[in-house]
Amino acid sequence: MSSNDHPYQGLKTIADFVRRGASRFAAAGLHYGHGTDNPVDEALVLVRHALHLGHDLPRELYGARLTKPERKAVAALLERRVEERVPAPYLVGEAWFAGLPFHVDPRVLIPRSPFAELAAQGFQPWVREDGVTRVLDLCTGSGCIAVACAMAFPAAEVDAVELSPGALEVARRNVARHGLEDQVQVLEGDLWAPVEGRRYELIVSNPPYVGDTEMAGLPPEYRHEPDLALRAAEDGLAIVRRILEGARDHLAEEGVLVVEVGNSAAAVMDAWPDLPFTWLEFERGGSGVFLLTAEELV
User: Fold this and answer.
1) Fewer C-beta neighbours within 10 Å, C or N terminus of the chain?
2) From CA 258, how far away is CA 122, in angstroms rounded?
3) Is pLDDT above 60 for 235?
4) How far is CA 170 from CA 99, 140, 156, in A?
């Protein structure tokens, strides 16, 4: 065996490689949070991918013995995770969001937003399903939130706006993957510019909101994600400020705006002390998402 897969010498089964991979990850101090939250699940994702097996792999196959080429392929992928600190979704080219698979690569942020839970609930009780005819997703990235909103509101038209040409390609690929080309329109441009004159019952956004100080402290895994999708000036508030400035002109009379700002929540409240933010709570984890109605934005 090569020096690359030496740490996996003598392993034979899927379970063997998952266990050893998890041990390697823990010893290396890897960071999780891009689809998994522990070394065992992270290793399992990579082992399955290297073997061309789906996420629904039956437990009884975990004891299956691997061929020599399979052992080398699994070992190489596990070691890439350790040596390069690349998040697993980039290594496998896929991430799951709101129960749906999405293509991802380093041109887009890896989906991990609590918006998945909101979409699964149809944004209840904040909107009526039969009252949503148009949805806008600003800074759509991979398109995962726009697709999830289209699934939640099948009768609604969804506009997804993105500035990055690379991210636009990924978003369009994901819209096509889920057969939503007739419902979801991916638009190139800077925030409100491509939707001038349009109004929506629901506007959502997971914009860049990480300030320079927080960026400096992020684990190496985040360095593989596009800086444009993470970093924002004014301590993370620059894009949020522009969203708030234009939202009232694009919300329908009873529309709502929902924006994720993560750890910048305190800074948002300090910057706009007179806005009556509703900070949403999530059963599956996540925080830093505010909601404002069109009336409150006046």
Assistant:
1) C
2) 13
3) yes
4) 18, 10, 22
Query: Assign residue 91 a region: left if phi > 0, alpha if psi is -120 to 50, beta otherwise?
Result: alpha
Instruction: Supply the pLDDT for residue 215.
Output: 81
Determine the pLDDT at residue 276: 96
Site of tokens 């839970």 = 117
The whole-angstrom separation of Cα 138 and Cα 141 is 9
Mean pLDDT, the chain, as a whole number?
91
Residues 6+ apart with CB under 8 A from 203: 135, 136, 138, 247, 250, 251, 255, 256, 257, 258
Q: Pull the structure tokens for residue 35.
A: 């689809």
Dist CA 175 CA 139 (whole Å):
15
CB-based contacts of 277, cutoff 8 Å, min separation 6: 268, 269, 290, 291, 292
Tens digits of per-residue pLDDT, 142-156?
999 999 999 999 999
- CATH of the structural domain 97-297, one choice from 3.40.50.2020, 3.30.70.100, 3.90.1150.10, 3.40.50.150: 3.40.50.150
The residue among 24, 23, 30 whose CA lies nearest residue 224 is 30
Q: How confident is the model at residue 112 (pLDDT cuts 50, 70, 90)?
A: confident
**Would you state the pLDDT for residue 1?**
42
Q: What is the DSSP string of 120-172?
A: HTTTTTTS-GGG--EEEEES-TTSHHHHHHHHH-TTSEEEEEE--HHHHHHHH
Domain ranges of the chain: 3-92, 97-297
Nearest to 121, CA basis, from 293, 281, 288, 230 = 281
Per the CB < 8 A criterion, the answer to whether 148 and 172 are in contact is: no
Strand partners, 256: 202, 293
